[in-house]
Amino acid sequence: MVKKKVLMAEGNLMMVKVDIKAGFVGDIDYHPEEQLCYVERGIIEFELSGKKRMLRQGDVQYVPANAKHQVKVIDDCTLLDVFTPLRKDLL
User: Fold this and answer.
1) What CATH number does domain 2-90 carry, 2.60.120.10, 3.30.470.20, 3.30.465.10, 1.20.1440.60?
2) pLDDT category, 47, cuts 50, 70, 90?
3) Distance from the Cα of residue 89 to its chain's centroid
4) Which pLDDT tens digit goes with each residue over 71-84?
5) What is the pTM for the complete model shown?
6) Would you place residue 89 in the very low, low, confident or very high pLDDT band (cuts 50, 70, 90)?
7) DSSP state, residue 89
8) Rounded to 10 degrees, what is the CA torsion of 31, 15, 58, 43?
């Protein structure tokens, strides 16, 4: 249901491509890295610190370090996630 591919990890930046099928509901997540989430295609409901926002193709969501967040996939999607510093758990 979720497929991740590290596209680049150099210096203090990392980009990960994530393909997720409709119906997926992620666990509540938080991590010490800052994150940008770009929706390449599809629709997701993104909850950040208790506030929900619908994201569609072309939308970007900023996630501060250690902020609790969760996604619910409405339509099959491809996300590009950028992290700083590198998320070692994804390498």
Assistant:
1) 2.60.120.10
2) very high
3) 14
4) 999 999 999 999 99
5) 0.94
6) very high
7) G
8) -60
